[in-house]
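[SOLVED] Predicted holo structure with zinc ion

Edit: marking solved, answer below. Original request kept for reference. I posted the sequence and ligand SMILES and asked for the 3D complex as structure tokens.
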Amino acid sequence: MLCCPICQSPLSLDASRCACAGGHEFPVTDGVPNIMLRNTQTADHYSFQWGKELDFYKAIRESQGGILKATASSKLGWDDYLPTLLADARTVLDVACGYGGIADIVKRSGFSGSYLGFDINDTLADVKKERFAELDNFQFLRADMTDAIYAEAFDVAVCRSAIMYAPEPRKTFAAIAGAVRPGGHFAISAYTRKSPMRELCDDYFRDYFSRLPEREAFEALREFSLFGKILSDLNVQVEIPEDLPVLQIKKGVYDVQRLIYYHFLKCFWNPEWGFHNSTIVNFDWYHPEYSWRFPREEVAAWYEECGFDIVEYRVVPAQHFFCGRKRG
Ligand SMILES: [Zn+2]
């Protein structure tokens, strides 16, 4: 399974006790062990984002799938692709499992092997209780993907939309890759790199917002939703008659809000989601301390360095998806 983050000896986990062979003991709350060694800005961010105060998961439930369908994760086709990897797998590691979106797919597939999901946010006891209480083969724990906790034990490892939050993504990728058995698969999705003005704005405003406490940042980011709404309400189309290679804008017809959104400033607005949920998207983008964006070649090089052949690549606006098979 996983290793002790302190001494790297094997960790035994169950619903009541979590200890390593080297004698380190970790707390267990409501059936969820916590092996985090330290708190981080990213942990505070995601505990707030997935917690009761913002209650984004409630909005997801109430939209009956509408919100999830609009996400990059849905457009990348995780729902269809992941079950193909599970067919021959007995063990799945879900790194940075968030609110349990991958766990839901694994559950729907009827997977009968062992699923282990971990995240830095403190809401996993609720995820487990509300959606996985009856499933003994689903285990959740609180852990930091950047700690030395990996042993070569899994047929499938997944890290959906999270590797960019690591301070050193290449190093974290290599560590997770070490958890995959030869012949096993490692699938990730991550942010793409965008046009230069947008990248500059992203860095500037992330530096600004990540220094603010969660609540304050969230309130301030309503402004970005409002700006998105103002542009969207204009309902104006802009024609770019030829490619603009320095600005990295392709010729075509754009809604003015989309043109600014993709090329200059992320200011998410979706009228069906409303202010609160649109602001969660802006908060998810600007507030975490680290949020790297990667060209395709960079991620492909990580797979190669770790001894994987890429067997699937997909791209949608803002994110791309990779799946590799470990050689040997
Ligand atoms: Zn230990």
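OP edit: The pocket of zinc ion is lined by residues 4, 6-7, 9, 20, 22, 24 (CB under 6 Å). Thanks to everyone who chimed in.
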